[in-house]
Design goal:
Blueprint lengths: L6 E5 L8 H18 L2 E6 L4 H7 L4 E3 L16 H7 L3 E4 L8 H14 L2 E6 L2 H8 L5 E4 L11 H4 L1 H14 L4 E5 L5 H9 L4 E4 L1 H4 L4 H8 L4
Helix pairs in contact: 1-10, 5-7
The protein binds SN-glycerol-3-phosphate (G3P).
């Protein structure tokens, strides 16, 4: 993985095509493309698949969520230590489909920092991006919730949310990488986002739900 180049993180969510053997095959395609074209591709996968995918794939694997807890009586919690033990490099935090309170977000980011897990804080707008930047996650991915899963990309529908998020976040901490997502489907969506200052893309349906994910990914990386 090249630290200075933009990254595409594919979130496998809980799609039928995104877990177990099918999810693995999709990540294998991502691995092949990443190696062959020297691009940064990563996957955010089901907690159940973290160990298998991390052990057997040569792309960074992220969790989709962790809980900001420490050892103890937290039945059902996704323990940050267990995520690190699984081999994952980091986690999404506060995805629009798995929202947390600001208190939980802060705890989670801090717990992940203690353990060396990278954090991708998902935010819905510029205001939340600014507030989140003060918690110093490694990345902030701004995704207007109403565009998630749709056909119009954030870079087409709301370009200003990308450039303004870059501006407010970098004012607080230049080390935080700003990503964006929602509705991203092709290389134009990505190149536009990059030209607006985005350092990467978080996307899901355009790749995971596609009958031809390899073709889509090969198109997407041309926008990087
Ligand atoms: O986590 C990525 C995401 O919420 C965007 O989803 O389907 O619009 O690419 P999608």
């Amino acid at each position: 993985m090249n630290d200075d180049s933009p990254i595409i993180i594919v979130n496998l969510k809980a799609y039928e095509e995104g877990y177990g053997a099918d999810g693995y095959d999709l990540c294998k395609i991502m691995e092949e493309i990443a190696l062959e074209h020297n691009v940064n591709l990563a996957a955010a996968v089901s907690a159940i698949d973290l160990v298998d995918f991390s052990d057997n794939l040569d792309i960074p694997i992220f969790a989709q969520h962790v809980d900001g807890v420490t050892y103890g009586s937290h039945t059902g919690a996704i323990l940050p230590e267990a995520v690190r033990y699984s081999g994952a490099v980091g986690t999404l935090v506060n995805h629009a489909e798995c929202q947390m309170t600001w208190e939980e977000i802060e705890k989670t980011i801090n717990r992940c920092k203690e353990l060396g897990l990278s954090t991708v804080l998902c935010t819905a707008d510029i205001e939340a991006s600014e507030k989140g930047a003060k918690l110093n996650p490694d990345m902030i991915a701004v995704e207007p919730p109403e565009l998630i899963g749709g056909d119009i990309s954030v870079s087409t529908a709301k370009p200003e949310i990308i450039s303004n998020t870059v501006e407010v976040v970098k004012k607080i901490n230049t080390e935080i990488s700003v990503l964006c997502g929602a509705g991203v489907k092709n290389q134009e969506d990505i190149s536009k986002a990059i030209s607006l200052g985005s350092e990467g893309i978080l996307l899901a349906s355009g790749v995971v739900k596609s009958p031809e994910p390899r073709k889509v990914l090969l198109d997407l990386i041309k926008g990087l």
